[in-house]
Each structure stands twice: as C-alpha cells, then as structure tokens.
Amino acid sequence: MAGSRVAHATLKGPSVVKELCIGMALALAAGSLWKMHHWNEQRKVRQFYDLLEKGEISVVVQEE
Predict the structure, then answer these.
(1) Which of 37, 36, 56, 38 is nearest to 48 (CA)?
(2) What is the pLDDT of residue 2?
(3) Number of other CB atoms surrounding residue 8 within 10 Å
(4) Which domain of life is it from (predicted)?
(5) How far apart, in whole angstroms, are the C-alpha atoms of residue 61 and residue 64?
(6) Distance (Å, whole) CA 39 – CA 46
(7) CB–CB of 57/51 below 8 Å?
(8) What is the pLDDT of residue 3?
(9) d(CA 44, CA 61)
(10) CB under 8 Å to 7, separation ≥6 — which residues?
C-alpha cells in the first residue's frame, strides 16, 4: 500500500482578474440601463414643455 496516490481537489482562491472583469461588465450594464432610463425621462419632459409652449396642452384647469 505504499505509494498509492489519490487525486484531491485543490481549492483555489478567487481570481482577481476574473472578479474585476465581472464587476466591470455588471457596472457597464447597470450604468447603461440607468442612462437609458434618464434619457427616456428627459425626452418625456422635453416633449411636455414643447407641447406646453405650442399651446396644445395647458396646466391650468378650465372652468366650466
């Protein structure tokens, strides 16, 4: 029984480069979604003020 070798799984620590790449990818994805949300809100506000300036809408309640 001398010299028998058993393959053991070696545990490795976290890969710093892999963690940085995953973190950057997630940050870019989240940042892109956030920026798209703000562009959409900005478009809505700009459209509202354009309609208000043209007189197509009003913020004053009309009396009957």
Answers:
(1) 56
(2) 57
(3) 6
(4) Eukaryota
(5) 9
(6) 10
(7) yes
(8) 56
(9) 21
(10) none
DSSP label of 62 = P
Q: Which residue has the tokens 């459209």?
A: 47
The residues of the chain scoring below 70 in pLDDT are: 1-4, 6-9, 11
Residues in the chain: 64
One-letter identity of residue 17: V
Which residue bears the tokens 């913020």?
59
Q: Give dist(CA 62, CA 64) in Å, integer.
A: 6
DSSP string, 4-64: -----PPP----HHHHHHHHHHHHHHHHHHHHHHHHHHHHHHHHHHHHHHHTSS-SSPPP-
Structure tokens at 50: 């354009």
